Amino acid sequence: MLGETNTAEDNMSEQGHDVAQRITQALEHALAPIRLEVIDESYKHAGHAHVVSRAGTAGGVGGTHFQIKVVSQAFEGKSRIERHRAINTALAPEMGVDGVHAIAIDARAPGEV
Amino acid sequence: MSATETIQTAIDSHDVVLFMKGTPKFPQCGFSSQVVQILGYLEVPYTTVNVLESDEVRNGIKAFSNWPTIPQLYIKGEFMGGCDIVREMFQSGELASHLAEKGIDCKQPAKV
Fold first, then answer.
1. For B3-101, which CATH superfamily applies?
2. What is the ipTM of this complex?
3. Is B34 on the interface with A (CB under 8 A)?
4. Region A88-93: what's the mean pLDDT?
5. Is B81's CB within 8 Å of A92's CB?
């Protein structure tokens, strides 16, 4: 039975990991990034009403708050607003009441520091 | 007044409008709080709309700006962006220079 024990900690990493993977795939598909980092920061928001009230969770299990750093050729010549919109559109299926609550975005074209 | 009219009136009648969760004194979200701090630092006069007071405005502003998240900052009727963009513009000095260009008084950062 030992191997089947599912601790809260296991849930946390799995839930957050699945969402992070879907975000990664969506952004790779939409933007063909040269660099991409998807960081689950949900633990920083563990007390938020949104996180606490999620179905099947007791105080947040990850996968609600992400920091995303993208470097993509697609951002060349695009305004900040256009870049964020491209990311928001790609991630729209993940956002919502039972999904991702917030993403912090750092979007750059190659060569921008 | 419809939500769109409320939003349009707010951005037409004030130079700097922040749509946020909560109030400057009691922000209900870390991202809204960051923008409040930035505007406070720049000593720029601004008006806020608390989207938590009205679901119509909360959803309306997202459609109005074609932007899915709160906070949202408007300067002279122009949508500037959300927390990340405002922070980037603040850090690079663009926010202060943009405000100055638009004739809005604010503290200009010392050049390094």
1. Glutaredoxin (3.40.30.10)
2. 0.89
3. no
4. 93
5. no
Give the pLDDT confidence of B40-95 residue by residue, as tens digits.
Answer: 999 999 999 999 999 999 999 999 999 999 999 999 999 999 999 999 999 999 99
Q: Which residues pair with B13 in a beta bridge?
A: none
Q: Which two tokens stand for residue B73?
A: 């900052």
pTM: 0.86
Q: Cβ contact (<8 Å) for B67 and A92? A: no
Q: Is the per-residue pLDDT at A41 higher than 70?
A: yes
Dihedral Cα A8, A12, A14, A17, nearest 10 deg:
-170
Residue of chain A minimizing CA distance to B86: A80
Torsion of CA A65, A69, A73, A79, to 10 degrees: 70
- Domain parsing of chain B, residue ranges: 3-101
Q: Which of B84, B87, B89 to mutate to test the interface with A (most CBs of A within 10 A)?
A: B84
d(CA A11, nearest CA chain B) in Å:
25
